[in-house]
Amino acid sequence: MPAFTPSRSLHTRLSLAIIAAMAASAVQAADFDDFARVVSVAPQLEQVNYPQQECWTEYVQAQRQAQRGVGGSIVGGLAGGILGNQVGGGSGRTVATAAGAIAGAIVGDRLENNQAGGVVEQQPVRQCRTIDNWQTRTSGYAVTYEYHGHTYTSVMPYDPGARMRVRVSVTPRP
């Protein structure tokens, strides 16, 4: 029984593949460059948005609270306590002194802190908004051209002018 060698089978397959490739290249198309006459060119336009940010500074009034003082409360409390002590007698004098001190403290606080109030300042505030910026741009050219009596249309990235180079491929029919 003869021994089967894989190398002989592989060699045969490779030979057939090479022959098939050579035969295919013999039937392969002939390619060459030629020129076609341009019939018309129409730019292809599109709208593109390039948004932009517009910013500005506005000045707004802001009230800053002044620091509250306690001196008016103390002085008012002492004065109210002294005045309250002058009124009444016995245990009523103690109540009048306490009521005078409380009322004096409240009046003194209001006099000191209401006059100071808040401080009004101008503060800068940055404001921004996005504005649409639409622009028209050319995205290509629809080129209609004629080659050997036939009319073709193709979109190209540039205007080819009066004539354009074309790639011609010729293959035989079976």
From TrEMBL:
Positions of the Glycine zipper 2TM domain: 71-110
Coiled coil stretches, renumbered: none
Signal peptide: 1-29
Pfam families, alphabetized: Rick_17kDa_Anti (PF05433)
Key word Ribonucleoprotein present: no
Top-level taxon in the UniProt lineage: Bacteria
Main location: membrane
Protein location: Membrane
Keyword vocabulary terms for this entry: Membrane, Signal
Name of protein: Glycine zipper 2TM domain-containing protein
Source organism of the structure: Noviherbaspirillum album
